[in-house]
């Protein structure tokens, strides 16, 4: 279902109106990575950090942690770069998602995303040859539900 998206003839003018986004507080994360496991289990039926829509990076030497996930940009370069119009859609909670039935696995979305460092926001599902990213779990992300410290939250986007 395509909702709340204004496509223009100029790809650099594509805008969406995300209603929610994830936030991450590194200062209270325990590095358990439960969010990665529950995400992949929920979406793919197996516990695999690679198949998770969120990536937790732990630098044990410097005692630092960071999270990578879709930022739900209002002017998404991933959408503007996708050559298949039906491959990226807006779901019921306003999250830009990838329609795996239409995705051709070209990777243009992954190349265009400025937050996709090391391929951790938009990932290639190797066995299906399609890309995937966070879809906010229809407004109730399983990663937020399982986080024992509340380091992950879903918040409304200010308009």
Describe the SSE topology.
Blueprint: E1 5-6, E2 15-16, E3 20-24, H1 34-44, E4 55-59, E5 64-68, H2 77-81, E6 88-90, E7 96-98, H3 108-112, E8 123-125, E9 130-132, H4 142-146, E10 152-156
Antiparallel strand pairs: 1-2, 3-10, 4-5, 6-7, 8-9
Entry summary:
The chain is α+β, with helices and mostly antiparallel strands and 159 residues long.
Features:
two-stranded antiparallel sheet; alpha+beta; 4 helices; Alpha-Beta Plaits; globular; two-stranded antiparallel ribbon; 159 residues; disordered N terminus
Describe the structure in your own words:
With 159 residues, the chain is an alpha+beta fold. The chain has one domain (5-156): Alpha-Beta Plaits (2-Layer Sandwich). The protein has 4 helices and 10 strands, in the order βββαββαββαββαβ. The protein has helices spanning 34-44, 77-81, 108-112, 142-146, and strands spanning 5-6, 15-16, 20-24, 55-59, 64-68, 88-90, 96-98, 123-125, 130-132, 152-156. The strands form 5 sheets. A two-stranded antiparallel ribbon has the order 1-2. A two-stranded antiparallel ribbon has the order 3-10. The chain has a two-stranded antiparallel sheet with strand order 4-5. The two termini are 22 Å apart. The relative contact order is 0.24.
Rg measurement, Å:
15 Å
| Net shape | globular
- Name the structural class: alpha+beta
Reported by name, the CATH topology is Alpha-Beta Plaits
As for the number of domains, it is: 1
CATH architecture: 2-Layer Sandwich
One letter per element, helices H and strands E, the order comes to EEEHEEHEEHEEHE
Spatial strand sequence of the major β-sheet:
1-2
Main sheet properties? 2 strands, antiparallel
How many strand units? 10
User: How much helix, percentage-wise, in residues?
Assistant: 10-25%
Termini separation (Å)?
A: 22 Å
> What fraction strand?
15-25%
Low-confidence runs? 1-10
CATH class: Alpha Beta
Total count of helical runs of at least 4 residues:
4
Give the averaged pLDDT, no decimals: 91
């Amino acid at each position: 279902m395509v909702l709340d998206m204004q496509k223009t003839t100029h790809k650099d003018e594509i805008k969406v109106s995300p209603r929610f986004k994830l936030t991450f507080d590194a200062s209270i994360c325990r590095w358990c990575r439960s969010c990665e496991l529950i995400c992949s289990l929920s979406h793919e039926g197996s516990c695999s950090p690679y198949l998770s829509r969120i990536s937790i990076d732990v630098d044990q030497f410097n005692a630092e942690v960071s999270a990578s996930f879709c930022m739900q940009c209002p002017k998404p370069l991933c959408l503007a770069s996708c050559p298949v119009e039906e491959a990226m859609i807006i779901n019921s909670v306003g999250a830009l998602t990838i329609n795996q039935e239409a995705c051709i696995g070209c990777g243009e979305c992954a190349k265009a995303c400025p937050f996709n460092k090391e391929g951790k926001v938009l990932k290639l599902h190797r066995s299906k040859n399609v890309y995937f990213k966070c879809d906010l779990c229809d407004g109730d992300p399983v990663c937020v539900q399982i986080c024992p410290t509340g380091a992950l939250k879903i918040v409304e986007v200010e308009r």
